[in-house]
Amino acid sequence: MSGLVVPPESLLVVRLGAMGDVIHTTPAVAALRSAFPAMPIGWILEQRWAELLCAKYALRSGARDCSRPLVDSVHIVDTKRWRRSPLLAQTRTAVLAVLREVRENGYQAIVDFQGALKSAVIARLAHSKTVFGMKNPREQPAQIFYTHAIRIAGAHVVDQYHSLAEAVAGRSLPKCAAALPHDERAEAAAEKLVSQEKLFVLINPGAGWAAKQWPAERYGEVAKALARDGLQPCIHFGPGEEKLAEDVMSASTGASRIRSTIRSSSSWVVGSIQCRSSNTKNTGCRLARPRS
Hints:
Rossmann fold; single chain; 9 helices; 2 domains; alpha/beta; 292 residues; 3-stranded parallel sheet
């Protein structure tokens, strides 16, 4: 099915996670924002990634500003917790509260950038008559929940998401950079840890499941190679990944360019990008996945 002839008056973006996937989606949403600056746009995602869209202490809905530059509303879910305790009354209460919040916004269209069964179900439960998704989603059953299944184009996922956004808009869209929030506290913390005299690289060795986990020894070799090239590697890790970060640090054989291991939230990652971009003329955010 093709896109709309007339763009929607309001839009809900569904991309629940994870960090890299959310960041990869932001250029497509930024293109929609550029083309339709007055369009109310909401985004539904997991709690742990909310700071990629909205600064930690900022309001999650209302007038946009530098602390929430891209969307008008950020809707939070916690599907991992809900799956652990699906029969608890508080789980049911939380699910219904999110659905009520989304439905009260009356989004005219919804676009599922994730292509998973759970994201497609959430999109459908938002009660919009128009739900966009990919013709060949990551999980094929997701397609049954879409009213508009779009055949996407592009080799890279960023380009694929852009083509899906163009279907929503019903026209070509400009290519836009990711729009990340400014968080003064996170940027100040990042600036203390990251030298401003050289470029730095965040190494995130963690993965959602074992099949995606690259060995710590290989990350150590990457860190040493980056250091030899004059870059500053910083190991970023989340809760429960302390041992992994230590193994990567050990595998790097104490390369002096590795400043520290950083136990941080997504706001630190955004802060490190923003503090660098505010102090250099040419800054780009690049995400790369290692190959075995």
